[in-house]
Amino acid sequence: MIIAVGADHAGFDLKECLRAELSRMGHQVIDVGCTSRDPCDYTEYARQVAFNVVEGKAELGVLVCSTGIGTSITANRYSGVRAALCHNCDMAYVARSHNDANILVLGSRYVTVLDANAMLRVFLGTGFSREERHRRRIQKIDSRQQAYNDVSSYIISKVDNSG
Predict the structure, then answer these.
(1) Do 158 and 115 reside in the same domain of the chain?
(2) Does the active-site annotation cover 40?
(3) What is the largest CA-CA distance in the chain?
């Protein structure tokens, strides 16, 4: 499987551990950065992981920042992304099986490397249940996102043509 990974400076060390674990598991890793503990903005790395997943360059993604909140908010701005901030293996399981999450998000200040590796294994090893109730909910999310995209495109076109 091809997995895109990204983190800001606060998540760098955990991202490096997860990248190594993914390689040990035999997965191909697309590491979008960051490349050190030097201060940086999580938004760029969340965007790059989201694009890799949405464009099909990666099957799934993993994001890490200090809390996981900023990267999950950023990634979920992109149509087709279902980024789930998880704190334990049960959440990682439900994120995949019920919500068909395609990006696992972790907060480096709130999980150990051992727990992060365990959540990663659960996330990658769990498929979407395809139960009707879960499919219906995801379709509602996707249709609302499409409606938002349509309205945004219309507004942008009006602004671009007004002046």
Answers:
(1) no
(2) no
(3) 56
